[in-house]
Fold this protein.
Amino acid sequence: MGSIPDPGELTELAQPSFDDFQRQTSLMTSCTLLWKELSDHFSSLEQDLLNKSEALNRKICSLDNQTNESLNVLRHRESTLDDALQIALRDIDKRTEAALAALTRVKEDVAEGDGDGEVDNGEGLMLKLKSFCLNMDALGFWGFLIGKKKELEGLRAEMPDALEECIDPAKFVLEAISEVFPVDKRGDKGGNDLGWACVLVLESLVPVMVDPVLKSRMLVTPSVKELAKDIAEKWKVSLEERGGVENVKTPDVHTFLQHLVTFGIVNSDDLQLYRKLVIASAWRKHMPKLALSLGLSNQMPDMIEELISKGQQLDAVHFTFEVGLVDKFPPVPLLKSFLKDAKKVAASILEDPNNAGRASVIFSSF
């Protein structure tokens, strides 16, 4: 049999260590804190999930409400389409009779006057435009329009109302400008640039074709939209044949870009082309608005930087005001830089005795 351990020795071995006790206490405290931290973390995650779930449910409800409203609007439009069509037809008949009667009165007044067949007042201009539109005489309309450049403001005011008389305004406009866009059929003997007339007609078509309910949508039939796309592609091909962006006239660029916006056929794959065209014709006052309509808003800061680097500070200032980037591109330093560069150019011209008169004109404008 083995020896019996000494009781005193057993007591000494069984006595707990204070260090062990402290370690265990520290371990329990750490475990408690860790548990609390994990518990708080999971509670926070749970609350975040609940908040996100509630926000998602609110968005779903909002979308459902919007969808229901849109469906109700569409149902209402569908249910009233026949009535609206009958009203429109009656209205067209009335306006046709009124326009023809007014034209007859104007012709009688002219016959009693100087007999030159021209009416120089606003009513006469409007009546003639409406007459072409009512008869869908696109070529006659175009011939009349290009001879009235001196009455541009009157044309701009009357054109949308006149185009409303067309059975198919979009197709009418495409046919009217077809002589010069997408390709000038007049060839080298084209004479005066008619881009102003193309832009005027395309801009005037916008309010005529806007959906009265969904304002952001253009009411263009699929067949006309496809035709407009084909025209845009033909213009791009002609652009390459003419030597690229550097060799195209600004009125042509303006017409092309307005064509895209008017018919809602902007192609995201062509954004770089649009940017080059806008930069090349940046001096045109409509370019900043067209750039935004073409989807170039994100590229505006870089485009303004490019204009500045090319010495086109005035154009850059125009763009900054149009797109709301005045804080990022303060106009005063840009204008001072432009003035400095202009004086240098004038001074260099002044040194040439053949251009002294031109330099004096530049200096007198400062």
